[in-house]
Every structure is written in structure tokens, then in C-alpha cells.
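Intended use. Records like the one below are meant for learning the mapping from a protein sequence to its folded structure. Do not use them to infer anything beyond what is encoded.
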Amino acid sequence: MNPVDDKQQTGVLSYIEQHLGLSFSPSRQAELAAVLGELLRLENGRSGRLDATAFALGRVSDEVLQALVQRITVGETYFFRERGTLEALEKHILPSLIERRAGGTRHLRLWSAGCCTGEEPLTLAILLERLLPDIDSWKILILATDINTEFLRRAEEGVYTEWSFRGIDAEFRSRFFDQLEPHRFRVHPRILSRVKYMQLNLADNSYPGTKSGIEDMDLILCRNVLMYFSPRQAQAALRRMYHTLAPGGWLSMSPTEYMLQRLTGFAPRNFNGVSIYQKQEQAAPQAGAPAGLGILEPRIVAPALASLPGSVQTTLPAPIVPLTVPAALKPVDPLSASKTLSARCALQAREAADAGRLTDALDLCREAIAADRINPALHFLRARVLEEIGRPEDAAVALGRVLYLDPEFIPAHFALGSLALRQDKKPQAAKCFQRALNLLRPMVPETVLPEMEGLTAGHLRDMIYTLQHAA
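Structure written out for the chain above:
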């Protein structure tokens, strides 16, 4: 018997959105009901006094709320995740901050918002070790916050397994970690000491401010966090982060979050295909501004930013779906010279796009398609490049070819819907999103979708439900 009825669950959903910022789409509400039922059984085994209506009435203790948080927050991370972003930080953004402060205050303030078990802030500490030979003469704050106290406990312990080192070589581990036993490693104390861990609810009004110490940040990394928030709460958190940043400070979000949120007051900067956002004083968001959902607004980069090395000025939004090499592009028939040529061109196109050589990438896409005209993944790759170049109409045509070849190609339906929404073609966007949902509906939520950067069917459904509010 389900211990939570529909009315009670509605109250719980409202409580979670109001107090934690989190939004549960219909596809995840069964998961929430199971978690809540487990929590109620455990708590009632101790006290016998908790039921679901306590959430709706706001009569939940901190202990119970934290127990809920630990069951519904996501804990997937690893060292040097999102290499493109880290390369932009190491080669461009951090050096520019260091140069600006080297002759003066010699201080840096960095914030990992939603730090999980600590891999991201420790990665920042390692980057600074590389960039600052005289790091001990600098005043550095690397603040790492999370709402989940269990995540923070593990982060402060600084012990990690092989799973946190995916794609990291042994030499890197030996430089910054000590092996405790097979498959377990502890970060060097000098690295761990550079990070300050603190519990923080991003849906709370306690930041920015001197009391919390969260103010005047040079850089905020808030990646794969706000995608789980309701539109209202995500916008409120973004406004607080804007005011938390120092003048000219930087905000990094995941590509998915670029698509879901309107970043008013920020100018997009492109570093070899990676978009990071810089605070613009002249477009400061108002504290009482409406928190409506919107697709990323393109903004013109201020002339003063052009001097930053390695960056490319752009008025284009970040790509809706990061360019990836579709699995379907791998040659499956070694005897087919044309398929081998097509796969090689596709890989080269991806490399060119990553390097910011979009014209070269487009030419290579044409060569790949000429060698394998009926492969829908190739046309999808070309559509992604066309969109990055700033040719949305041509991208839509290319996506149409994808669906002509494969009407059940889910990423193409999703990309067409997102493209239409950015062009304010809301009825068309709604139709595309509904077609994608129809194809996703019978799929197991944990199914990893091809051409979608490891995104699962359940996660994409959640994203589409959110976007449908805008469409």
C-alpha cells in the first residue's frame, strides 16, 4: 500500500520546490513517492509521529529534511570533468584573473556551487597549483558548497576510488594523491586545505552577504545543478549568483542549463566551442524581476572583453546539444571504403568543431555525407555545426533530412523543438517536443540516448517537460 496519496504528494512536491528549489516532473514523481514512503517508514519506526502532511504544513525537522535531501540529490561527478570548460579556465580565464591581481591584492575567490563529493573544487585547486608557482603568497578562497551533508562529509575526508579518476592517468594521481590501499586514494593535504567546505541551500536567501562569506566571487561553477530546479527557483538562484560575482566575474553552467535558463545580465564568451558567461554591470537584473523561463538571450560582448586572449566574440547562444561523435558514425563494415571514409571525416569534423574551426567542420561534414548519404547521424552532426555557425534555417533543413531518413531519431525532434523555441515559434516547438516525448515514453528512464552526451531518456523527458512550459 502506498503510504502517500495523491493529495499528500502534491503537498510534498510544493514543499520541496519551495524549500529546496527542486522540481519533479511527472516521470519522476513515482520515484519521489517511493523515496518518501521509505523515509516515512524509517522515521515512524523511530518516532511514529511523521506523515506526509507534515511536509505540506512545513512541520519537518532539519533531520528529516536532510534525510530527504540525501535520497533525492544526484551525486555523479569525477576529477577534470568537462574538459573543454577546464581548458578555458586554465588557459584563459584564470590567467587573466591572475594577471589582473598579480600587482595588487593577489587574491582569488572561486565558488563551486553544488560541489557534491568535492572533485570539482579540488580540480580548481590543482589548476591553481599549476598556474601559480608562488601560490602560498596569494590569498585564495575556493569555496565548495552543497546542501547534502553526507556529500560534504565525504568531500572533507578527501578519499576517492578509481571511479573518480575516469580518464585520468596514473602520473596525475601520484602527483596529487596518496594511495591508501588498492583502488582508494587520498588527496594531498596541501590541496585539500585550499578548499573551504560549507553547507548551503541554493534556494535559500542567505547569499550573497558578508555573514555567509559568499560575496565578491571571481568565478562560480554551477554545473548540472539548476537543471533540477523549478524555473522560478532557478531564476532566483541565478539572480543571487549575479549579485554574488565581483565586477566582470564569470559564471559557468552546463550546456543543458544554458538552454533552460535566461541569463540576464551576463555576456556569453566562446572559448573553442565552450561558452562561459561574464557579468555585465549595465544589464544588472532587478531583484523583483519576473522569473519566467526563457531560452538563453544572445547579448553583444562589450568591446573591453575583446582583449582577453583566446576568446571569440559572439552574439550566438551556446549550442543546444554539445557536438558529439555519434556512435553510429563508427565504421561497422571494414570492407566498405566509403563508410570508413565517412567515419574518418566525421571524427575530423568533431575535432575541427572542438577547435573552433567551424567552416572546416562543415566542409568535413559534407565529405562524410557524400560518402554515406543515408546515415542520419551524419546529417545530425552537420545540423549541429550549422547551428553553431549561426545558420538556424539551414540547421532546420538538415534536421528535416535526419527525420526523413529516420523518423524516430529522438535527438533531431528535440533539437528542432529547441531551435523553434529560440525563434519564438512556439506551436512548432510544442509539436516537436511532443513527438520526442511520444518516442521516449516506452523507454526505460535509465536508457542512455545516442548523440546526447550521455543523457538518459528519463532526464531528457524532464528537460522537455520544463521546456513545454515555455512552448
